[in-house]
Structure formats: C-alpha cells, structure tokens
Design a protein that fits this description.
Radius of gyration: 57 Å
Number of helices: 72
Distance between the termini: 148 Å
Helix content: over 70%
C-alpha cells in the first residue's frame, strides 16, 4: 500500500499535481513514517504549494532519516534533501542558511568526486550572496573559494585565483574601515570634553587593531605573480603599517616598527618610487653626521622624487660646500640604475653652486616638506655656514620639535639626530645676539655631552662659549679634547691655539697659530678666510703681548696687512689696523677710515664702533653717534676686546630714548647694557632716570641704591636717590640725601633748589597731616636754604615762588604766624631789587612800597605780615619770569591765588584783594588760555560778583579738562549760590564720580542736604568728607563739627563719649589754623563742656569775650553786644563747673544786665538765672538762689526742670514752709507735665526722706509706668529701680525690697545695675557674679559700671581689676582696702 502511494506521489509530481502529490506523500508516511523519499516528495510538494515552513520540516525530517540510515549502514550521503533545502532557501532569500546548505551540498559532491556539480553549486552561491546578502555575508561567501576552505583544493583551477579574491576583500574592508572611522569620530567628538586629535587616534587604534588588512595584503603578496600588483600591495601594506604605528601606544610600537622598517627597506632595495618608504629609511636613520647616510640612497631619492621638498634640499646639499660626500666622478658607476621618467632631471655630480641658488632651493624644499626633520637639519647647518644665525636658531628649534614628534610616533630614540640639531641650535645661539643666549647654548652643549662625552662639535661649541666668557683654561681643555678626536681639523686647532694666546701662553699659542697657518694650503675662499683669521690672530697676539713690536712695520702691522690681502672683507683686521694708525702713528683720519671700513663690513666690531662713535661725539655729530650705537646693538654677532664690556651701545641708545621721552625703550636699552656690564655705573644712573621719568619710583629707588654701592663717592647718584625719595613722599630722607650731597659739593645750585623745594613740600605735607609745628619749622628751614640760593642767583622764578609759598603757608597755621622770620624775608625780597617795583597792582591791593615800609616798622599784625610778605615775593617772581611766557603766566596766577588768599584770610575780607586777584587771573589767561587751572581760578574769584562770568570761566575750564573734581565742585558751589540746588546737587555728584576722594564735593552735597532740611544726611556727608579730607581744609572741619554739635543738641539720649571726641580733636587742629575766630572757639568750648573740660572751655570763652569786647568798642554794634552777653552766660556755666561761684555770680549778673532789653536772648537769660541760682546755692546763699530760680521759672514759663531745681533748693533750706512749697511745686509740675520723669523721681525721693507713705503711694504707679517704657536712658532707669527698691524697703521691709529688685531683674536681665542692686539688697554672691558676667558681655558698658561689677564680688583680684578699669573711683580703692583687712583678720 505504501509503495503504491509513493508511486502515485511520484506520478503526481511528474505532472506537477502538487496537491495530489502532497496527499499521496502523506499517505505513504502514514504507513511508513521513516520513508526518506516520501519526506522528499512531501517537501517538494509543499514547496511548490508555497508551504515553506512545512516543506523545510519535511526536508529536515528526510535528512534525519538519512542520517540514521547512514549510521546503521555506512554509505555516501544522498543529495536530494540538501538540494531541496538549497532551492527552498534560495527562493526565500535566506542567505546564511543558503550558504551553509549550498556549501554542504558542494562538499557532498566533492565526496562523490563530482567536480562539475560541486562547481555548479559554488558558482551560484557567490553571485546570489552578492545580490541578496549584506557585505559581511558577501565577504563570508568569498572565503568559500579561498585557501583554507574545505572546497578550495577540490575546485582549484576552476575557481578564481586567490589573489583576485583577496583583492576584492581588501577593497571592501578598506571602504568599510574608512566609513567606520569617520562615523565613530563624528559620534565621539560631540561628547563632553572630547579632543578631536585624541578621539581620532583612539578610534583609528581600535579599528586598525582589529583590522584583517595586514594579513590580506600579505596573502595577496603570497599568491600573486603580478609584479605591478605586488608593488601596489607593498605600498598599501607599508602605508597601513605606518599609519597603525602612528596611533599605537608606546609599549606596542616596537614589533610594528620593526615590520614597517623591514617593508620600507624592501621597497628601497627594489628601488620602487614610493616616497614614504624612502623617507622612512632616510628620516629614521639615527646618525651623528649626515655623512653617515648611504649616498646611493640619497641620490636615488633625488632621482625618484626631484620635485619633493626633501629631494630639492638633498640636491642642493650635495652641491654645497658643506657636503661630506665625494662627487659622482670619483665613484664607480652603479651596476643597476633605477628606472626614472624621461622628464626627470638627473643630478650629474656634486659641483658647487652659488650659495644664493642653493639657499633658494633649500627654502623652496622646506616649504614643500615642513614636517621633515632631515630637511631642517640640513637647512640649519647651511644657515650656520652662511652665518644667518637668527634663522638657524628658528630652523633648529623647529627641527628638534620634529625629531621629538617623530620619536614619539615611531618609538625610535633618534638620539643622534636630536643631538645634531641641538648642537646646530647651540652653535647658532653662540653667535646670535651674543652673549645674550650663551647660557642657553651652554646648557644645550652640556645636555649632549652628558650622554656622549666625545661629541666633537659640542666640545668645540662649549669651548667657544667659555672663550667668550673669558674662561680660557677650561675652553682650551675642551678644544684639546675635540682636537684629539679630530686632529686634522684646522678650525679646532686654530681655536685651541687662540685660547692659549688669550690665557697668556703667548709663545705656545703663537707657534701653534703659525703651524696651523702652514697647514692651510688651499686656495679656495674658505681657506683664504681661515688664513686671514690666522694672520690677524698672530698679529693681535704680538700687539697684546709684545708691546715694543707695535711700532715695527714688520710686526703686527705686517700681519694685519697680510690678513687683508687674503680677505679684503675681514673686519677685525681693519679694526686692528685702525688702532695702529690711531695709537701708534697718531693718524686719526686714516684710523677713522679703517674703523668705518670695519664697521661697514661688520656692525659687531665693538672696538671700531666705539672709537668711531667717540670721534663723532667729539665733533658733536650726535645723530651719527645714535646710528652707530643702534647698528652695534642690532648686530647679531659682536666682537670686543677680551675683558672689556660692550654695554656702551645700549647705554647710548638709552640716553637717546630718554631724551626722546620713550621711557620704556630707554629702560630696555639700559637693562640690556647692564646685562653686558653689570657694574656700569652710568648705565645704572640712566636706568634709574628712565624709571623715575616713567613714574616707577620704587624701581628707581632700588636702582640708585645699587648705583651708590658701585660708586659711593659719586654725588650724582645720591642726588638722584634723594629726588626719588622726594617723589615717593619720603621728604625727611630726601632732605637728608640732599644735605649729604651738599657736604660733597658745597653750594651746588641745583641741589640747593631741590632741597628748598623738598622742604617746602614736606611743610605742606605736614599741613595736610595736621603736624602744624613741624610744617612751620620746615618752612623756616626752606627760607634758610633759599637765602643761600639768592646769594648765587636772585633772578630765578622758582626761587621767589618758593619764598611766596613759604610765607603763605603761615596763613594756614595762624596760631604760629608769629614765628615767621620777617627780617630774613624782608632782606631776601629787597636784595638787589628796586622797592618801587613792588608797586605793581598796588593801586588795587595797596600792597607795595608803602606796605613794605609798614612791614619794616612792625605796624602790621602777624597774619597780615605773612600774607603781605608772600604777595611781595610773588610780585618779585613776576619780574623774574618776564622772559618766559609760560613762567610769567604761572607767576601772575600765583599772585592772583595769593591775593584771593588774602581776601579770604585777612580780617574784614576786603574787596581790594579780590579785585586784584581777578585782574591777575585775567592777565594769566591772556598769556596762556589753555590752562584749566587759570579759568577755574577766575571763576572762583568772580563767583559772587559776576555769576555769568564765573560760569563761563568754570565751564571753559571743564571744556579743557573735564576730569578735574575741583572744577566740578566749584561749578556746583556757583549753582548753589544762585539757589539752583537741584543742578548744584547733580554737579557735586559728578565731582564725586570724577574723584571720590575729593572732600569738598561731599561737603557741597552736605550743604544742599542742610538746605533741604535733611540734617541727618548732611551730618553723614560732612562726616565722610572729614574722614577723607586732609587737615589743611578748614571748611570741612568747621561744617563737620557744627553739624555734629547740632546732632548732639537735638538728640534725646546722652551721646557716647566717642561721638564727642572726634569733633574735639578736629577743633584742636581748627583752632591752630583759626586761633581768633569766635564761632570756632565758642563751639569748641561747648564741646569741652560736654566732656567736662571746664578749664579749657573757660579759657576759650575768655578769649571770645575779649574779642567781642574789642569789636564792640570799635563798632558799638548790638550784634557784638549780644554775642558778648551770650559768651558771658556760657562762661558762667564753665566757672560753675570749676566751682568759681563768685566769678560765676558776677558774670551771670553781667549777662543778665546786658541781655535785659534784648530780644532773642531768652535762652541766654535762662542759662544765666539757672547758673546764678546754682552758684548762690553752692555758696550757701539760699534766698538769693531761690530768687534766681523763681526768675528762671518765670523766664522758662514753668519749665519742669526749673521746678525741680527750685524744689531742691527750697528743700535744702530746711524750713518746713519751704519744704511744703517744694512739694506743692512738684505736685503742680507733675500735674502739668505728667511725663516728666525727674519731677516724679524728685517727689518720690522727698517722700522716702519724709517717710511719707502718702507721697510714695502717689508716685509708685507712675514710677512703674515709666519703668516699662523703652525710650528712657540707662541712668534714668537705674534711678527708677533704686527709688522703687527704697520705697519697697520703707513700706514692706527687706522682703519687699528684694521682690522689687528681682522684678527689675526679671524685666531687664541685661542691665548690670539691676543685678548689682539685687546683690546689694540680698548680699547674694550669685547675683554679684551674674552682674559681672552681664557687664563683660555688654558692648557699650560704661567703665565705671564695669568697675562696680568687679567690686561687687568682694575679692581682692576683682578689686584690683575694678581699679584698673576706673582708677578714679574712690569706692574701688575703699573696697580693696576693706577686702585686704578682712583677709588679714
């Protein structure tokens, strides 16, 4: 049955009846599930019915059945099931399954030795995969036909050659890796902190480490017999290996580098023109000399790559005179020549070409190959030959960097290449701007010699440096070492011999030079140059060591001439010949010609240039001196006489730049000079002057101090040092320096003037800092020095300006005006001068010949004397400056300033001085209209007289210089005078922004704030102005003290002592400046009263009273009489404080008598009544006291404070009737003024003293109400708590008193007095300790309170601290005594 069904299935398949075939196949399998062909037919039927999964299962089942059968019986594998799967996978385009199945099917055919069918299957696989698969699947399919696959040997000969297949793989992988690298770099470079170069290296390393390309290239080379393909693959293999080497890490480079070197040498051996291979062989060769290279390789490189950068350089090098290689003509022709293109120019030999042509070729080559270390090495050596040292330095440095980079990339040390470039760099540095870079060159030579002690070029170079540094012994040793290594080197031999000469071995050195001269047999230019040098050195040796031979024509002279015959451009010979003509023959003209010729040939001929410059200087040709100095300083190589510095060119340039006011360039020139000659005194002086002129005074100070150490006897260094100290504000040290100079050069005019100016500057500095006595002493000393100057020259403008300034200085310290040396100044101003000349401007200011007579007769007061003497000095300065327009303008300005100072300072503020000042300023502006100070002065002088002119002048000043805060402040003051306060305030703000440290700008804003009714803001501004102002500005101190006093008067609390001390100190300075200004004295006295200094206040008020009394006697003005009465009332209070009761009563009575009929003196009368009442009280004149207090009560309209005073006096009279009146007065006052604390306290105190519970009960509630208020002072609160405790003790005994004290502590635990009161009542140690702790933690605690807290502990140590805190407290001393006694007992 199963066979029939199987046949039926076969018949259905033949007629392609796939449904029936499926049915019959299944029928067969139902009877025989292990039937192989039934599964095959079923799979085929299902495949054609497009039931692919079931079809695959059927085929797989057939394979399993077939496998079982083969295990049971060994036979060859059948192909039907595999063929079916191949067709199935092919139709489904399942590439991987298709490849695996097809390969297996091909292997079955291979086992069956059916090559045709096997090839047919494989031939279909690769095109199918290429068409339908991915690149990786295609690469896998190609592996099927490559060596190593299971089918390659069977199909060899009928499948493509392996090299062609490998080539396809290479092409695919190259593209894939390039795309992968680019894609990965793009992804990673966007990461945070990624560096492009680092990312690129990492990506390439990752990709190329996994790359199969190297193996594929090798396989192509192994299988291919196509030479062109092999060379192409060789180049690709080398390029890939080289690229991979560049990105490998250092520890992995060795093996890869060896392979790359091997591949590169192979290409070079094959003479294949792949430049990378040749460059690797050439660049990677580590050799001490270029002569160690294979000349054949170099020439072949030139032939293959004539247009490459390295090729051009090598070609030029081989044709140059520095090439160590022989010409082609002397060598055997190579057996095999490389094939080169027809159009390639072949180098025919090593004929030497022109240096310029060779240099052009090398420069062109270096531009084409900027990354070639070999190119830079050759070019550096050639630049050294041409003595182009600056360019040689640049090229050598670049070459060293390239060698270092190549070493890092390849892993090769390349030490010899690095050393060669290091030596080239060091040799260039020896001569480039010598000796600036000698230290760097020495370090480079030593670096080379550390690992190669016999390196000849390094030994020679280091020897030359030591020779330049005049260390001839060590230089000779090094040159001898180099000579032993290369005994035929005439250059080294000549240098060694010259070193012997320089170090004093004249005979040996001269003999060695002569021997060297005999060995130079060449006729070429370089040989002639060497002969010229040797001849000159022999002549120089004879010139130096054989002095008698100088005059012999057959001596040094003959050698100099012979040297020039060998080389007409040998500059040192011309220099020596010039010295011969000048020093021996005395022929300056011929000598100068020789020096000029030497200088033309070489600007580095220091000796020739110096003598030439000296010659130009003697003929006053300073421009030529500058040209010579600049050329010498810019010369790359300088030659000077051993032992002689070469600082003069830079020093001369520094002087020129200093005169041209190019201070920075001057500094650089002098510094360069000092590097060459560190002990050059004049260069130090020039450097110091340049620093001073550029404002770098600290640097100048150090420089001049250094100059002093070099030449302590030179007065000019001391003088310049004193000048610098003056600029730094160290006036005392500067004066000391000037005096030291005068001790060396007595009556030196310039030094005397500088000393006088410095003394005057110091005096003004003392004025600014408040040291007025020192200022006057400095001014007097300045006048003493001026007296010495006038003896020499009396027509100097600055001299009379100094005299005038010194005289006017006394007007700033009026209390010391009497110290002015009047007689001396009169003698000075009259010296060699017609007195009638002083009448200039006398028709206006009346200060002329008549005033001079009054001064001589002593008819003027001290202040007027000072001012008049200053005016006379300034007038004389006008005549002294008549020939100088600028000085004349300044002289008129100084006179105008002094006239305005006279207007401001002298009593009465007479208008004549102001008009004179205006005329002076106008003349000043006519002479010089571009100075903003002149316009500003005119604006200030005309401010009140003509506001329009003043505004024009000040605005003009701002147009010239809008950065001057003083001018802006003056403009603001002008606006304020015109009552335009908003504009004034804006102008003052502009002044502050221009210069925040200008005090008067803040004063102006303070005045505006006062006008606008903002006293707190005004006080703050005045205080700030006082803090930043110097002590010379009077308005700042006056306004600050006045505003501070107003603030203290208007405050309800007792001010802190510190707030009063600052104004008092300000008054001390102000009183010294304005000793007889009543308002200043009176305000100062009121501040003294605040701090209890009644004596000082009394003295000031006595002066005020005398001033007003004098004024009243002259004018009989009611205003003066009122001020006199007010001053007497104030004086009465001070005398009361001094316990001068009788004087107080007299002055109070006088004040009351004078103020009786005057208005606006109510406060004065009240003060006089109260003071008189207290004075009578303390004098025990109770009735008179009561009468005064009654009058005060009437004056004050029942003022509660006056009521309290009256009540106290009535109580003190000790009469029952008076005491009743006192109680009634207090009750009435409390009823009228329930918030008056003192009235309640006084009434409560009377109640306690009377033990009257009615009175105490009446005030307790009020006291407790006051106790809870926050605006009371600490002193008042203490009195309230003390009174409450006393009342409690009176009413309820000690317990109630303790409760009251505890209540006070509870309400205000931070008050020390509350704890002290509790401790006193309870005698509790804890309360005493707490009081001390609270006192120590309180910031604004009074010293006495703090002392009391310590005393409360009743310990000797605490008592001592209490005395230290407040030694004036008698109780503290008593407590200490008590505690000591208690301890002893």
């Amino acid at each position: 049955m199963s066979k029939a069904a199987l046949k039926a299935a076969k018949s259905a398949i033949d007629v392609k009846d796939w449904v029936k075939a499926e049915s019959k196949s299944r029928d067969t399998l139902s009877f025989d599930p292990e039937n192989y062909y039934a599964n095959i037919f079923l799979g085929l039927s299902l495949f054609n019915l497009q039931k692919y999964d079931e079809s695959e299962q059927a085929y797989r089942r057939a394979l399993e059945i077939e496998a079982d059968e083969r295990r049971r019986k060994e036979r060859k594998e059948r192909t039907e099931a595999w063929q079916g799967l191949v067709n199935l996978y092919e139709s489904q385009k399942q590439v991987d399954k298709y490849m695996d199945t097809a390969v297996h099917l091909a292997e079955i055919f291979r086992d069956q030795d059916d090559r045709f069918k096997c090839q047919t299957v494989i031939d279909k696989v690769i095109p199918f995969v290429q068409q339908h698969g991915t690149k990786s699947q295609y690469k896998a399919s190609l592996q099927i036909i490559l060596p190593g696959s299971t089918l390659y040997d069977f199909l060899d000969g009928v499948i493509p050659r392996p090299d062609q297949t490998y080539l396809k793989l290479v092409e695919m992988i190259e593209v894939e890796e390039t795309e992968k690298i680019n894609k990965e770099i793009a992804n990673r470079r966007s990461r945070l902190g990624a560096v492009f170069g680092q990312v690129t290296t990492e990506v390439k390393r990752e990709v190329w480490n996994k790359s199969p390309l190297e193996e594929l290239y090798q396989n192509i080379l192994n299988w291919s017999d196509d030479e062109e393909l092999r060379r192409t693959i060789d180049t690709k293999l080398l390029q890939f290996g080289y690229n991979k080497l560049m990105v490998l890490q250092k520890e992995h480079k060795l093996q890869q580098r060896l392979k790359v070197e091997n591949w590169a040498r192979g290409l070079v051996i094959l003479k294949y023109p792949f430049e990378l291979a040749w460059r690797i062989v050439i660049e990677w060769k580590d050799c001490e000399s270029i002569g160690d290279h294979d000349i054949n390789i170099l020439r072949e490189y030139i032939q293959f790559f004539p247009e490459s950068g390295l090729g051009k350089i090598l070609k030029a090098y081989l044709r140059s005179e520095i090439s160590p290689f022989p010409t082609v003509a002397t060598e055997d022709e190579p057996e095999e020549k490389p094939e080169v293109p027809d159009d390639t120019e072949v180098d025919g030999g090593n004929e030497i070409a022109a240096p310029d042509d060779l240099l052009d070729a090398m420069i062109e080559g270096i531009e084409k190959s900027p990354n070639s270390a070999m190119s830079h090495r050759i070019l550096a050596e050639y630049y050294l030959l041409l003595e182009e040292y600056e360019t040689a330095v640049e090229v050598s440095r670049t070459g060293k960097k390239l060698v270092t980079a190549e070493s890092q990339c390849s892993g090769l040390a390349l030490q010899r290449n690095q050393d060669a470039l290091t030596v080239s760099l060091a040799n260039a540095l020896i001569h480039y701007r010598a000796p600036k870079h000698h230290e760097e060159a020495r370090v480079l030579f030593e670096q080379v010699l550390k690992h190669n002690t016999t390196y000849g070029a390094a030994l020679v170079g280091l020897g030359l440096i030591l020779e330049e540094q005049e260390n001839f012994s060590e230089a000779s040793d090094l040159l001898q070492q180099a000579l032993s290594r290369d005994p035929n080197n005439l250059k080294i031999q000549s240098e060694a011999a010259w070193c012997d000469v320089l170090k004093g071995e004249y005979e040996a050195g001269k003999q060695a030079l002569e021997e060297c001269l005999e060995r130079v047999t060449g006729k070429d230019p370089r040989s002639n140059d060497l002969k010229a040098q040797l001849l000159w050195r022999i002549g120089s040796a004879m010139w130096t060591h054989d002095v008698p031979s100088r005059t012999d024509r057959n001596g040094p002279y003959s050698y100099f001439i012979a040297a020039l015959q060998k080389n007409q451009n040998f500059a040192p010979a011309y220099t020596s010949l010039g010295c011969f003509y000048e020093d021996v023959m005395g022929d300056s003209m011929r000598a100068n010609k020789c020096f000029q010729r030497a200088f033309e040939i070489s600007a580095g001929e220091i000796e020739a240039a110096e003598r030439l410059a000296r010659s130009f200087a003697e003929s006053k040709e300073w421009e030529l001196v500058e040209i010579v100095a600049r050329r010498v300083s810019e010369a790359e190589k300088k030659r000077s006489i051993p032992g002689k510095g070469v600082s003069w060119p830079q020093s001369a340039i520094g002087v020129v730049e200093l005169n041209n006011q190019n201070y920075q360039l001057a500094i650089q020139s002098f510094q360069a000079a000092l590097r060459s000659s560190p002990n050059d005194f004049h260069s130090w002086i020039g450097l110091g002057e340049a620093y001073t002129s550029s404002g770098r005074y600290l640097a100048a100070l150090k420089v001049f101090q250094k100059a002093e150490t070099i030449d302590d006897s030179n007065w000019f260094a001391k003088y310049m040092l004193a000048n610098v100290r003056r600029e730094l504000g160290e006036f005392a040290e500067a004066c000391e320096g000037y005096n030291t100079v005068l001790a060396l050069r007595k009556d030196e005019f310039g030094v005397l003037v500088a000393l006088s100016e410095t003394l005057l500057l110091m005096a003004w500095k003392y004025i600014e800092t408040g040291y007025y006595t020192r200022a006057v002493e400095s001014a007097i000393e300045c006048l003493n020095v001026t007296e010495k100057i006038i003896i020499q020259r009396s027509d100097t403008f600055n001299l009379w300006k100094m005299v005038g300034d010194a005289c006017m200085l006394f007007s700033w310290v009026q209390s010391l005006a009497h110290r002015i040396p009047k007689e001396k100044i009169l003698q000075l101003v009259e010296n060699d001068f017609e007195s009638s000349e002083f009448n200039i401007m006398a028709d206006v200011d009346e200060v002329g010949q008549v005033a001079l007579t009054k001064l001589k007769e002593g008819k003027l007061d001290d202040l007027t004397t000072c001012v008049y003497l200053g005016l006379l000095a300034y007038k004389r300065a006008i005549y002294a400056s008549a020939n100088d327009r600028h000085a004349h303008a300044v002289a008129w300005f100084n006179l105008g300033t002094a006239e305005f100072r006279a207007y401001v300072t002298l009593p009465g503020m007479e208008m004549k001085y102001r008009l004179a000042a205006i005329r002076c300023f106008k003349r000043t502006i006519k002479l010089e209209s571009g100075n903003h100070e002149f316009w500003n002065a005119l604006g200030v002088a005309t401010a009140e007289l003509n506001p329009k002119v003043a505004q024009h002048a000040i605005v003009r000043a701002l147009y010239i210089n809008d950065k001057n805060a003083r001018v802006w402040t003056n403009l603001g003051a002008l606006y304020a005078l015109q009552e335009d306060y908003a504009l004034a305030n804006e102008t003052f703000s502009r002044a502050q922004s221009t210069d925040p440290e200008y005090a008067l700008a803040w004063v102006g804003q303070g005045l505006i704030a006062s006008i606008f009714g903002e006293p707190e803001e005004a006080q703050s501004l005045f205080q700030h102005a006082f803090e930043i102002a110097d002590q010379s500005i009077v308005p700042v101190k006056r306004l600050f003290t006045a505003a501070t006093f107003d603030t203290l008067v208007n405050t309800s609390k007792e001010p802190a002592l510190t707030s009063v001390l600052t104004p008092i100190f300000a008054f001390q300075k102000l009183q010294a400046q304005l000793p007889r200004v009543p308002t200043v004295l009176q305000l100062s006295a009121l501040f003294d009263e605040r701090v209890g200094d009644f004596k000082s206040a009394s003295e000031k008020l006595n002066i005020i009273c005398s001033i007003y009394e004098e004024r009243y006697e002259e004018s009989e003005s009611d205003e003066d009489l009122m001020k006199y009465a007010q001053s007497k009332a104030d004086l009465t209070r001070m005398q009361l404080g001094l316990q001068l009761y009788s004087d107080a009563i007299d002055n109070a009575t006088m004040a009351l008598d004078l103020s009786g009929d005057m208005e606006k003196l109510e406060s004065c009368r009240l003060s006089a009544h109260l003071t008189a009442g207290l004075a009578y009280y303390y004098s025990r004149q109770m009735d008179e006291s009561i009468e005064m207090f009654k009058a005060a009560l009437t004056e004050s309209e029942e003022n509660p404070d006056v009521v309290c005073l009256l009540s106290q006096v009535l109580w003190a009279k000790d009469g029952e009737e008076e005491r009743d009146v006192a109680r009634e007065q207090l009750f009435g006052s409390i009823e009228s003024h329930p918030e008056h604390v003192n009235s309640v306290l006084l009434l409560g105190t009377i109640g306690v003293m009377d033990r009257s519970t009615d009175v105490t009960e009446a005030v307790v509630d009020d006291l407790r109400a006051f106790r809870a208020k926050e605006n009371l002072s600490r002193e008042v609160l203490g009195k309230i708590e003390s009174l409450l405790a006393s009342i409690s003790l009176l009413d309820g005994g000690e317990a109630d008193a303790t409760a009251s004290a505890a209540s006070a502590v509870f309400m205000r635990p931070s008050e020390v007095g509350n704890w002290q009161q509790l401790a006193t009542i309870t005698d509790d140690a804890f309360a005493s300790e707490t009081a001390l702790k609270v006192a120590q933690g309180t910031k604004d605690q009074d010293a006495e309170e703090h002392s009391k807290a310590h005393s409360g502990l009743a310990k000797i140590g605490c008592d001592q601290r209490a005395i230290m805190l407040a030694p004036w407290r008698a109780e503290a001393w008593k407590d200490l005594h008590s505690d000591i006694v208690a301890t002893v007992e």
